[in-house]
TrEMBL record:
The keyword Transmembrane helix is annotated on this UniProt entry: yes
Keywords annotated in UniProt: Membrane, Transmembrane, Transmembrane helix
Source organism: Paenibacillus kyungheensis
Protein name, as recorded: DUF2812 domain-containing protein
InterPro entries in UniProt: DUF2812
Species lineage: Bacteria, Bacillati, Bacillota, Bacilli, Bacillales
Any Pfam family: DUF2812
Segments passing through the bilayer: 118-137, 143-162
Amino acid sequence: MSNKNVFRWWWSWESEKIERWIEAQEIQGWHLVQVKSKLLRFQFAKGSPRTMRYVFDYQHDVDEDYKQLYEDAGWEQMYAKNNWYLWRKSYLADHPEQRPEIYSDVDSIVQRNNRIKTTLLTVGLVLIPILIMNMMLQPMWQIRTTILVVYLLIFALFLYGITRLNAQNRRLQEKSTSLK
């Protein structure tokens, strides 16, 4: 049996994109065996093609009931670190309408997105005093300028992620409202 390790960069606000990529690997016969390096390195083993649903979940303060709820519903936990959880569940390829979902409603997805936004905002706010200290302690203006540029890029990235999550929440809520 052959294996492959794939490094795949993705952003927390693009979890659906990476889920679809892993599912496409399964359809090609590459079964996800392990996830490493903070959800960036994926180890696959070659096998028969199969249809699997993968879902990333971002949770704080998880208890045993959380895990038990998904396992009772037939989900298998593939990863659990740093508030990120990766679940998978098989389904029949000839019944795509039966593709399993972890999130039962739009509000659950919006709440997950809000948890990610809160984390991005918190980390961004924690970086502000660090930036100020670095700027004050660094005597060379060239290094201060470099530090400032790097921090501004990080803040821009966080702001972009928050904006993307807000846009996704709006789309989900509009779609939900139009279905009612």
